Amino acid sequence: MSNPSDPTGPPHFVGVGAQRAGTTWWFRTLVGHPQLRPARGRKKELHFFDRFGARELGPDDVAAYHRLFPRRPEEICGEWTPRYMHDFWTPRLLRRAAPAAKLLVMLRDPIERYRSGVPHRLSRTPERERETLAVDAIDRSRYAAQLERVYRHWPAESVLVLQYERCRQDPPREYRRTLRFLGADPDHEPRDVGRPRGTTAEAAKEPLWPDMLACLHRELDPDVERLRALAPEIDLSLWPNFAHLAAAGAAAERDGAA
Predict the structure, then answer these.
(1) Residues contacting 52, CB < 8 A, separation 6+
(2) How far is it, in rounded angstroms, from Cα 118 to Cα 136?
(3) Residue 152 needs a FRET pair 20 to 30 A away by CA distance; which of 6, 8, 123, 230 works?
(4) At how many degrees (to 10) do helices 110-124 and 130-140 cross?
(5) At what angle do helices 59-66 and 90-97 cross, to 10 degrees?
(6) pTM of the entire predicted model
(7) Please, which residues bridge with residue 106 across strands?
(8) Integer Cα distance of 251 and 253 in angstroms
(9) What is the 3-state secondary structure (H, E, C) of the chain?
């Protein structure tokens, strides 16, 4: 239970990406842990830094951000706003506001994320043209560019990169891995960890025609190759759209070992 007298301060952890990658499911699973606590009002997404692309972040703003995180001494508190990694100004400002926070990143097959992102944004902003949303959606699927932005301001040991497909494949193991990273008791048994939560765009997804699929690969394949170097824990064989890159990488390793 929230108590008005609980002390506040910078969050212990912040999820920074990616949109339409299972972050609602994972955040709700995490805050079901007795040590983990969401922001004031039990909010997952605060979108606190969105506005600072248009104005400066000042000391009063930092203090206001800290007030959103009441906690008892034994609690670990945080939020998860998936666009923080995407907005180029946010990693730097987040580092100022919460320099000791640990960052969580959840990634999903970039083309599947794109297919989910377009109808999701269209349902939220139906007045926007689909073409505009498609450009935004592919930019959000360029994970390497976003991670590079994060790593310019945060040490790699303060960032945990999770893979949605791996979390679906073995939820308990990835849950314990996340808890260990956050410094929480990893032996806690979660409820319904294997049941994803949040809104789904599955029914609204449309098949990709050959020209569009070719264009997506031309845009995203180089980024996925860079991602493999940035986050070697990502298993490309779990991303069906990029299995050809996993096979090519395995062949190159065999040739190098020969």
Answers:
(1) 61, 89, 90, 93
(2) 8
(3) 8
(4) 140
(5) 70
(6) 0.90
(7) 162
(8) 5
(9) CCCCCCCECCCCEEEEECCCCCHHHHHHHHCCCCCEEEEHHHECCCCCCHHHHCCCCCHHHHHHHHCCCECCCCCEEEEECHHHCCCCCHHHHHHHHCCCCEEEEEECCHHHHHHHHHHHHHHHCCCCCHHHHHHHHHHHCCHHHHHHHHHCCCCHHHEEEEEHHHHHHCHHHHHHHHHHHHCCCCCCCCCCCCCCCCCCCHHHCCCCCHHHHHHHHHHHHHHHHHHHHHCCCCCHHHCHHHHHHHHHHHHHHHHHHC
Question: What is the β-pairing status of strands 76-80 and 36-38?
Answer: parallel
State the pLDDT at residue 206: 72
Domain ranges of the chain: 13-257
pLDDT at residue 134 greater than cutoff 90: no
Residue that is written with structure tokens 């008005």 in the block: 4
pLDDT of residue 246: 84
Instruction: Give the residue from 14, 15, 18, 16 showing the smallest Cα distance to 143.
Output: 18
By the 10 Å C-beta count (0-12 exposed, 13-18 middle, 19+ buried), 74 is classed as: exposed
What residues are paired with 186 via a beta bridge?
none
Partnered with residue 70 across adjacent β-strands are 8
Question: Could you read off the pLDDT of 13-27 as tens digits, one per residue?
Answer: 999 999 999 999 999
CA distance 12 to 8: 11
CATH number of the structural domain 13-257: 3.40.50.300
